[in-house]
UniProtKB/TrEMBL annotation, chain A:
Transmembrane segments: none annotated. It is found in: Endoplasmic reticulum membrane. This is ER membrane protein complex subunit 2. It comes from Trapa natans (Water chestnut). One of its GO terms (cellular component) is EMC complex. Keywords: Endoplasmic reticulum, Membrane, Repeat, TPR repeat. TPR repeats lie at residues 166-199. The lineage of its organism: Eukaryota, Viridiplantae, Streptophyta, Embryophyta, Tracheophyta. InterPro entries: EMC2-like, TPR-like_helical_dom_sf, TPR_EMC2, TPR_rpt.
UniProtKB/TrEMBL annotation, chain B:
The lineage of its organism: Eukaryota, Viridiplantae, Streptophyta, Embryophyta, Tracheophyta. One of its GO terms (biological process) is protein folding in endoplasmic reticulum. GO terms for cellular component: EMC complex. It is a multi-pass membrane protein. It comes from Trapa natans. The keyword Chaperone does not apply. This is ER membrane protein complex subunit 3.
């Protein structure tokens, strides 16, 4: 996750470089550090540095990292010729290097010859079963082919060894969601919450999944997690506010006979509704009508 | 003795400075040699898995209050149950770790190499210092010392009336040994093989890490009481929204 200061720094550098001021190298370093995906910019500015022999020699040993970065960006933008050139230069410099081999595998993947890429990746994994990047490339490739069940199997195997990798858990959760296996997705989101409990997005998606599974207990838990999201974001997250309203009305529908939950529930719902109305008033006053009618229908059914 | 000894400047030129220079050069040499000799380590499957497992279990302990009680209990059972719990280490295996460490040829070779690269230069330099630079006063320490240090610092000087602040070159050697660490991290960058003191600390805590910390994590997990924080959050959220709305 990129913090706010880093993001502002990144956009500042980006605009600076775009408008012709210097600092291309700093921009590229920051992109590499933060692992954001700005492939077209990286490609443009990276190539401008690499094609100028003076600037290239000024980089010293970092030149090769830049080649790698530009190669990956080129593959992302489908300029396969550029990528092939970069990889050829790297291969000449570092013959027999696994890192360059990995790039070549990625090039095969980008060209679309997936079976060959798969063969290449499998051979890498045999040599070094702990190469996390190659594992992830395999999984991405299988997912791109559309074989989601196989991708899930691969990620599970990956997670058996590398169980602290929260990006992998997130990917697995999304895959389960796409297959509507919500209970398993809920488990993954719990793992994510455990590793980063102060991240409101995970609470939010967990609440969404719980709400989707349904059932009184899950709805109550979902409401609690929406509330914690509101807590963590200071009430600014509109989706959580909507979630609270929907949960409260669904709970009330399910528990028509029992009166226990009503008191706390309605207060939070009322506050959420007021907050939503105030927000819409400020930002989209023309939609306020839609909002009020939708909320009213929720309240009516509760 | 109250008067100050006047030390020949030739001592400074021919003893102190050459000794420091030689030690710096030897340190740099050791760094490059260790870089050449370093074998690429293929991480052991078990160790990687255990490391990750520990991180995951620690996360569970730290944020247990954020997930529902049922999931927490399910996870706790998964980790610490008797038959195939991940953290459960049967008693027999716990002692094997150290024996394994010494019998594993690769690891033993690695440790030996590291030891050698550390011990040999030190021994050689020490012997050289003793041979060439003993028997005279090399420097004066700026602060007064007690008599106890006499045997350590004044090794070649056999006069017992000389003030303890006047030391032999052996103490200059030791001073350099511990003091040049900062210089090396400037010249050679962070990870350099000359950091002996760190390495000595590392060696003492080596092989026990995996199995013992697994047991520790399991105990920690057993102790923990699940206190679900979410209901409180609901009330917090209400107050947050109240402030927002009014």
């Amino acid at each position: 996750m990129v913090t706010k200061t880093e993001e502002s720094q990144l956009s500042r550098l980006e605009s600076q470089v775009d408008n012709g001021g210097g600092g291309a190298w700093d921009f590229l370093c920051l992109v590499r550090k933060l692992k954001v995906r700005r492939s077209d910019k990286v490609l443009k500015h990276g190539l401008s540095i690499l094609n100028d022999p003076k600037k290239r020699s000024a980089l010293g040993p970092h030149e090769w990292t830049l080649y790698e970065q530009v190669a990956i960006a080129a593959m992302d933008c489908q300029s396969l010729e550029v990528a092939k050139d970069c990889i050829k230069i790297l291969r000449r410099r570092f013959p027999g290097s696994k890192r360059v081999g990995r790039l070549e595998g990625m090039l095969l993947e980008a060209k679309g010859s997936l079976p060959e890429a798969e063969k290449a990746y499998l051979s890498f994994l045999e040599e070094n079963p702990f190469d996390q990047v190659v594992h992830k490339r395999m999984i991405a490739m299988v997912k791109a082919q559309g074989d989601i069940t196989r991708a899930i199997g691969l990620i599970n195997k990956y997670l058996e060894t590398f169980m602290a990798d929260h990006d992998a858990w997130r990917e697995l959760a999304e895959l389960y969601n796409s297959l509507q296996m919500y209970k398993q997705a809920a488990f993954c989101y719990e793992e994510l919450i455990l590793s980063q409990p102060t991240n409101p997005l995970y609470h939010l998606t967990y609440a969404d999944v719980l709400y989707t599974i349904g059932g009184l207990e899950n709805l109550q838990m979902a409401k609690k997690y929406y509330a914690s999201t509101i807590n963590l974001t200071g009430g600014k997250n509109r989706r959580a506010l909507f979630g609270v309203c929907l949960c409260s009305s669904a709970i009330a529908q399910l528990s028509k006979g029992r009166n226990k939950e009503d008191k706390d529930g309605t207060h939070l719902q009322f506050l959420a509704v007021t907050a939503l109305e105030k927000d819409y008033n400020q930002r989209a006053p023309d939609k306020l009508q839609l909002l009020s009618s939708a909320l009213k229908s929720l309240r009516v059914s509760s | 003795m109250a008067e100050d000894l006047v030390l020949d400047t030739a001592i400074r030129d021919w003893v102190l400075i050459p000794l420091s220079v030689v030690m710096v050069l030897i340190g740099i040499l050791r760094y490059f040699v260790s870089k050449l000799m370093r074998s690429s380590q293929v991480p052991d499957a078990k160790i990687v898995k255990e490391g990750q497992l520990i991180v995951r279990a620690r996360n569970l302990r730290a944020s247990a209050n954020f997930i529902p009680a049922k999931s927490f209990r399910a996870r706790r059972f998964y980790y610490s149950n008797e038959e195939n719990g991940l953290l459960f280490v049967p008693k027999g295996q716990a002692q094997n770790a150290q024996a394994q460490m010494f019998s594993d040829p690769n690891m033993a070779m690695d440790m030996m190499k590291k030891n050698l690269s550390m011990i040999i230069p030190q021994t050689l330099t020490f012997a050289w210092v003793n041979f060439f630079f003993s028997g005279f006063v090399a420097a004066k320490i700026p602060f007064p010392l007690t008599q106890r240090f006499r045997s350590m610092l004044q090794n070649g000087i056999d006069l017992s009336t000389v003030d303890v602040s006047y030391v032999s070159s052996r103490s200059w050697y030791f001073l350099n040994l511990f003091g040049l660490r900062g210089l090396f991290s400037l010249i050679l960058g962070e990870e350099n093989a000359t950091d002996d003191t760190q390495r000595m600390m590392q060696m003492s805590g080596f092989g026990f890490d995996p199995t013992r910390s697994l047991g520790a994590e399991k105990d920690g997990l057993d102790i923990i009481q699940h206190d679900w924080a979410l209901p409180k959050f609901e009330q917090h959220a209400e107050s947050v929204l109240q402030k927002l709305v009014h």
